[in-house]
Amino acid sequence: MKIVLVAEYRDGKLLGSYGELIDFADKMGGESVMFLVGNDTDLPKYDGVVYLADAENFGEYNPDAHKKLIVDLVGKEQADMVVFCHSSYGWDLAPRVAFALKAAQVSEIVEIADGLPVTPVCNAKLRRTVKVKTPQSVVTLQSGAFGLTEEPAGSPVIEKIEGNGEGRIEFTGYEEAESGGVDLSKAQIIVSAGRGVGKPENVEMIANLAKALGGEYGASRPVVDSEWVEHNRQVGTTGQTVSPKLYVACGISGAIQHLAGMKKSEFIVAVNTDRDAPIAEAADVFVVADLKEFVPLLTEKIQSL
Amino acid sequence: MKILVCIKQVPDMESKFKVDTAGTWYEKTDLAWRMNEYDEYAVEQAIQLKEQVKDADLTVLSVGGNQVKETMKKALAMGCDRGAHIEDDSSSDKEPFEIAGIIGEYAKDKSFDLIFTGMQSQDRGSAQVGILVAEQLDMSAVSTVVDFSYSDGTVNVKRELEGGVKACITAKTPLVVTCQLGLNTPRYPTLPNIMKAKKKELLSLPVEDLLKVEPRQETVKVYFPEKKGGGLVLEGDAAELADKLIQVLKEKTAVLA
Ligand SMILES: Cc1cc2nc3c(=O)[nH]c(=O)nc-3n(C[C@H](O)[C@H](O)[C@H](O)COP(=O)(O)OP(=O)(O)OC[C@H]3O[C@@H](n4cnc5c(N)ncnc54)[C@H](O)[C@@H]3O)c2cc1C
Ligand SMILES: Nc1ncnc2c1ncn2[C@@H]1O[C@H](COP(=O)(O)O)[C@@H](O)[C@H]1O
Predict the structure, then answer these.
(1) Beta strands in chain B, from DSSP E residues, in sequence order
(2) Where are the domains of chain B?
(3) Percent of chain A's residues with pLDDT above 90
(4) For residues A263-290, average pLDDT
(5) Which end of chain B is more exposed for a tag (fewer CB within 10 A), N or C?
(6) Which CATH number is associated with domain A2-161?
(7) Same fold yes or no, A2-161 and A184-304
(8) Chain B: residue nearest A225 by CA?
(9) Residue A34 has pLDDT above 90, yes or no
(10) What φ, ψ does residue A232 adopt, rounded to 5°?
(11) Which CATH class is domain A184-304?
């Protein structure tokens, strides 16, 4: 089996997630080459051929052009599989490549079981095993599901891809994430509010518990999107990554993008009415309770300790 | 201007799921159904665009059994002009390429200037359909959009990247936009608009006329993951739970010291 691994590059830098691609190729037992639109000052540590297209010429986000480069490479290498990260770059480009190759795409693989890809269903409450029917396939990997146990090592053979990329859409620059305010990454104790708080007034009981514990409060994305809590308190892939001594997730289901931001916490408590909520996978203690009742009670008891 | 918005009806994710008898999807009875969360943002953005340009016709489309019409009615009450229901009782057996094929076939000679979809569906979550529709229609596409503005055939959007960084993009119509959470604030249909929506066109078309592609993958099985971690589960009276939790925190952590 021949596999093309598509590494990512952002704002002049190679992203570390390429190690996940290498691990996946190892697990598939395939022979791989890597593809990258980047530059030769920041290269993957990888024993194999890296096809490098210069980001200066091809743009960091130019799906029409990147698609064409990958499709051409798949033809040249006679590859059976193209592997992306399930990331803003990967999920945007993968369907375009799959369409051009007339190949099936399997999204967000969490593991390979008996040689077949497994993907999450319904907020990871269920899993699905998939069988591809096309000769070639395109896959994306859930962030963190694969990964090398050691730092990647090796020195690649670079094959430069010359040319220029024409595309129909124009990328005009990056806008940095809002910063300032609280730095949750330094907090030792975090109590977070999820959509389960139900209404903006209830955020206060979460903040009160955080205060009683001597920590900060955070939030999941819907709470931030609804503007009940400011963005710099959001925990997750598109917010902050935290690793406190104690993380208390109140009314948070435990979507992968939230887990990615807090699963390194030393001790995790979940408060949730749904015993099957996926946050249970990460929680050291899972309290099955209505937070509106439980959180004020807990706060009171802690205050009177 | 012609606008299309694609919506999917999905179960409430807090539902208790069961695997169906075929073992290839979840059991569809006894579930509460709603509009895919990402698609609510797509509908809202399409309506805002229509309100901005005034002279626009906005179709909402959904592929599914008869029950998806309930969700389509919500989109009509929010402000879509007409509904195209692609009637398909076995839509949940179809893979993203087939769903996109059906939508593309419906859209192919209708010259939509803009097509809005969600970035992913909450149940299957493939994040493919929107972009596959674009490829099929040879339209350009931008995914994961959290900011949208339109002026005179030009669209300016921001794509959300990891860590909350955004990429600023300029594109021309015709264009497919896949919508990410937080793009806007989806409106609640008002009672007068719910009444008005009852008179709006909601046509059902048989899927057989639009399905021209073969599936490229199949589901072998759907199952519950093994419960990992083996964390402690506390259940019962809230006051007792609080005492128990405090006890555990004292034993296992240093935070109450
Ligand atoms: C590209 C991308 C990036 C994302 N980035 C992030 C991110 O950075 N951070 C993030 O958080 N999400 C992110 N998300 C969104 C993520 O997928 C989920 O939608 C989100 O995390 C869900 O938040 P939630 O758990 O608060 O809400 P829900 O999933 O709606 O869960 C609410 C939970 O509250 C429980 N509940 C309800 N009522 C009560 C009650 N009275 N008492 C106790 N429990 C109750 C329910 O059982 C449920 O489990 C991202 C999504 C995408 C696609
Ligand atoms: N059955 C369907 N009917 C209409 N639109 C759909 C359907 N399935 C998916 N979509 C659209 O495609 C988007 C992405 O879905 P998916 O590729 O399944 O993650 C959704 O947010 C919807 O906008």
Answers:
(1) 2-6, 9-11, 33-35, 57-64, 82-87, 114-118, 140-151, 154-160, 166-172, 175-179, 202-206, 217-223, 232-235
(2) 2-209
(3) 92
(4) 95
(5) C
(6) 3.40.50.620
(7) yes
(8) B182
(9) yes
(10) -70, 0
(11) alpha beta
B163–A99 C-beta distance less than 8 A: no
Full-model pTM:
0.96
Contact list, A288 vs chain B (CB under 8 Å) = 233-235
Instruction: Return the pLDDT at B229.
Output: 64
pLDDT tens digits, chain B, 257 residues: what are they? 999 999 999 999 999 999 999 999 999 999 999 999 999 999 999 999 999 999 999 999 999 999 999 999 999 999 999 999 999 999 999 999 999 999 999 999 999 999 999 999 999 989 999 999 999 999 999 999 999 999 999 999 999 999 889 999 999 999 999 999 999 999 999 999 999 999 999 999 999 999 999 999 999 999 998 876 678 999 999 999 999 999 999 999 999 87
Q: Could you tell which of A190, A192, A195 is best to mutate to test the pocket of ligand 1, judged by most ligand atoms within 8 Å of the CB?
A: A195
pLDDT of residue B11: 97
- Rounded distance between C-alpha atoms, residue B108 and residue A247, angstroms: 50
- A293 contacts B238? CB cut-off 8 A: yes
- B224·A266 Cβ contact <8 A: no
ipTM score above 0.90: yes
Q: Is A240 in the pocket of ligand 1 (CB under 6 A)?
A: no
How do B202-206 and B82-87 pair as beta strands? Answer: parallel
Position A17 scores a pLDDT of 96
Question: CB-CB: which of A168, A174, A302 is closest to B167?
Answer: A174
Among B87, B99, B142, the mutation site with the greatest number of ligand 2 atoms within 8 A of its Cβ is B99
Kindly list the protein residues whose Cβ atom lies closer than 6 A to any atom of ligand 2: B 6-8, 36, 38-39, 42, 61-64, 91, 96, 99, 117-118, 120-121, 124-130
When the candidates are 3.40.50.620, 3.40.50.150, 3.40.50.1580, 3.90.1150.10, the CATH number that belongs to B2-209 is 3.40.50.620
Nearest residue CA, atom 12 of ligand 2? B129
Helical spans, DSSP H, in chain A: 18-28, 55-58, 63-77, 90-101, 203-212, 221-225, 256-262, 291-303
Say how many CA atoms lie within 13 Å of A76 toward its Cβ: 12
Element (H, E) at A41: none
**What pLDDT is attached to residue A178?**
78
Our CA-based measurement puts residue B153 at a distance from the nearest CA of chain A, in whole angstroms, of: 13
- Look at the alpha carbons of A32, A50, A145, B16 in this order and tell me if their dihedral is positive or negative: negative
Distance A123 CA to ligand 1 centre (A): 9
Q: Where are the domains of chain A?
A: 2-161, 184-304
Q: What distance in Å separates the CA atoms of residue B176 and residue B137, rounded to the nearest whole number?
A: 10
